[in-house]
Design goal:
By secondary structure, this protein is an all-alpha fold. It is built from 17 helices and no strands. It is globular, with a radius of gyration of 22 Å.
Amino acid sequence: MLSISQISVLIGLSLAHCLGCLCYMHLASFYPQEARRRGLLPAHSAVVIASVPLIGATLPICLLISKLNIRVERIALVVCGSLSVMGMCNIGMGSLDFATNRYLFFTLSVLFRVGMGISFSLCYVWAMTLIQVAMTDNVNTAIAWLEMAGTLGVVIGPFLGAMLYHVGGMVTAFGCVGVVTILVGVVMAVLLWRLPIPTTQSVATDTNPRVSLRDLFATGSIYPAIVSLEASYIIVSAQSGTLALHLQAMGFGPRVAGFLFMIVNVAMVTGMALTGWAMDHTGGRKVCMLLGLIALTTATEAGALSTQFGVADSPIYLGVCLVTMAMAVGPASVPMVTDCYEESVSHGLPPTIMTRSLIASLYVCLFSLADVIGTLLGGFIYQKLDYFLLFHVCTCVGVGASIVMGIALCCSKYRRIKYDVQKN
């Protein structure tokens, strides 16, 4: 059972991550229209919207954040401060409603979004670090809840942005979200200021010995978990970025696309929640990731074969495939943090905040990079080739990741058997 302090920390971090993802996505429904009105191209809007994940995918920035020497008691305050900075960047974006020069509009948009991306990375990395420190035996469940909150922010963001934009334009859309984000950050900082953070003895006495990325990658057994996370999110990002275009080409309107998106996100959230609970109570992280990859690959190939089955124009069949894929993302990705941490510590890295923050930085970087790669890959294949060929490409990605995870699982079993024989 989680203590009151742990529940308070988890609620605060989840709310911060939800608002961060909402700030990231809520402009997608109206910013392209404003940019077009000022004579900018769709490519300019894509650059502005993608600035946040591109910054998150920048490994040096994530590593720099992980090297900050922050005491455990102050990590929650850093998260709250980063949230407030995101709110200020949103208010700055809202002020661009008065900018008439398109070059000024585009340049300042990119600058504000870059600032938001750095703040988002800072908030995300240290939220993941604090979860590893404070949740002890419930790390996977807490990570699942954090990702569920982020998914909720991504889903709500465009809808909320469209509503606020309809009421009062960019000023209202960005201003309301920015003010609420700042207020939540300040209130959370006040509430969490004196909250005791439960830690293990090794973390409580942590002197932050230097741990580098080279030390982390020297433990080769972390690579399968990295491949599993990256492959699963690349597949999902590639599909989600082209689904609406495919449904429109089939003759279905935005309502069908919106309903499918809602169902898929609910399935993803459910899969993450079940995976987090199962991993904290049963273990078997590599087996879980392998089964998740197999289920994801199978559902992807089933979508590719819809043309053979004669159901290529059926949104129901496509929805079943996408829901199965979304459910499989949780098992394939949620155990990555704890698996990398356990493997790193077992290979000699210190169980300290520095190690945990380095793994959290790697997670944020890989997650953002997969989002960028998947979106670009899906858009390119859809535009140049065919939507159902995209399923085949994603199947190849899933098969490759499954093979890597299967080999890693066999090697892990072999090392365990060899150790037991030597011990006896």
